[in-house]
Each structure stands twice: as structure tokens, then as C-alpha cells.
User: Which sequence fits this backbone?
């Protein structure tokens, strides 16, 4: 399928479930990075919509209000009673933007993995680098920790939101940019939202936080019960 000039590969896998989980990857990535999440929830009997979106060539506003809106309105059928979102990094900001002007059905939940809800200290440091500008586009300039950046302008959401942050890094050269726990790209404190219903920290790095079965089980528990498993 070609959508807004981009070949977009996604599908809702067949099941009898009335719940659909929409997956949104992070900046500069593709739906392939969410494949392990997709496989896990297909085994659990959910319908899964693994969305591939142009994270580096379109604005966050376009991605939320045109791209995502079109996909949700055309790809999710009337038989779906709950539309959950599971997001990674930038995907969480896109969903927050989308839900400023759209509503979810009763009982729908959101799980964000490593979201830069208050921006990224790494973005502060490299936003003027020409390679970074080229590879991340306009969206990459909107994720600073400055109080005027886009994530800080989004209103609170009236939904059950669970947030999973990482505290390990594969990029130790960025460690000096942080004054506390971080995943190499986003600080743990920057992932928080006032309205979040639950929050956990896992010992994983930003890029591959979604790849671990323990994380999948935590997501599943939140979607079912509205809380994570705290041991």
C-alpha cells in the first residue's frame, strides 16, 4: 500500500479478539523493530496493527493528525471495542499528539516504552549537528528538554497510561549528558507523565527495550489489569 507517498507495510492479523494493539516504532526505525512485540501479542490472541511510518521526513503534527488518523480510521474495523497503543520513543509523542484531538474507546490503554515525554538530553547536545539534522528531520528538532519544546506543550490525557523506562546504555559516550539514570538516549525522569497510572524501570537500553520477553509480559499485564508487575 502507498500512503502519502510512502510504501507502508502493516496489517491487522486475523483473530477473534475485539481488542487491537497498535504498535508505533521510534525515530529512524521501522516496524521491524517492533516485530517481537507483534509476535508476542499475536500469540496472546490480540489483533495487532504494526505501523511503519515516515519518522524522519514528516512533522509530528502530520504523522499524528493525518498519517496515524488515516490508518486508525481505515484499518480498524467496527468489531474492535478497544484500541490499545504500545509505542517506542517518538511513537509515544505521536500518540500523545493524536489524542489531543481524537478519542479512544472505553477500556483502551497506552503503554509507552522509553518515551521522551520531557525531551532528550542527547537531542539538546546534538540538535545542531548536520548529520543529526539530516537523519532525523524536523521531528528530531522538536524533542529537546526545553520547556517550549513540543512534548511540553501537549495536554494531559484521560486514559490509562503505563510507562516503561530503561536504565542501561549501549552508548556510554553520552553518559556525561545525564545527571541520573538513563537508557543512553532519554533520562528515566524525562519519561514521566503526571497522568501515568503506573511506571517501572527495566535494565535495558533505549534501542532494544522492546525486544525482551519480560518487557512483553509487563506490557500485557498493564493492558489486562492497568498495572505493571512490581516484584
Assistant:
Amino acid at each position: 500500500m502507498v500512503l502519502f507517498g510512502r510504501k507502508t507495510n502493516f496489517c491487522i492479523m486475523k483473530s477473534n479478539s475485539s481488542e487491537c494493539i497498535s504498535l508505533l516504532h521510534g525515530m529512524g526505525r521501522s516496524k521491524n523493530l517492533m516485530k517481537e512485540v507483534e509476535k508476542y501479542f499475536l500469540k496472546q490472541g490480540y489483533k495487532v496493527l504494526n505501523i511503519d511510518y515516515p519518522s524522519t521526513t514528516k512533522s509530528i503534527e502530520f504523522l499524528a493528525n493525518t498519517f496515524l488518523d488515516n490508518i486508525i480510521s481505515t484499518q480498524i474495523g467496527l468489531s474492535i471495542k478497544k484500541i490499545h497503543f504500545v509505542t517506542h520513543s517518538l511513537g509515544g509523542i505521536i500518540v500523545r499528539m493524536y489524542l489531543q484531538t481524537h478519542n479512544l474507546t472505553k477500556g483502551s490503554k497506552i503503554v509507552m516504552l522509553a518515551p521522551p515525554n520531557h525531551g532528550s538530553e542527547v537531542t539538546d547536545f546534538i540538535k545542531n549537528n548536520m548529520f543529526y539534522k539530516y537523519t532525523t528531520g524536523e521531528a528530531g528538532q522538536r524533542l529537546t528538554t526545553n520547556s517550549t519544546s513540543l512534548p511540553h506543550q501537549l495536554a494531559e490525557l484521560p486514559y490509562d497510561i503505563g510507562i516503561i523506562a530503561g536504565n542501561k546504555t549501549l552508548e556510554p559516550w553520552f553518559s556525561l549528558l545525564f545527571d541520573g539514570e538513563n537508557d543512553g538516549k532519554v533520562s528515566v525522569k524525562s519519561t514521566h507523565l503526571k497522568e501515568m497510572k503506573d511506571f517501572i524501570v527495566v535494565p535495558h537500553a533505549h534501542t532494544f527495550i522492546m525486544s525482551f520477553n519480560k518487557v512483553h509480559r509487563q506490557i500485557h499485564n498493564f493492558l489486562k489489569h492497568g498495572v505493571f508487575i512490581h516484584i
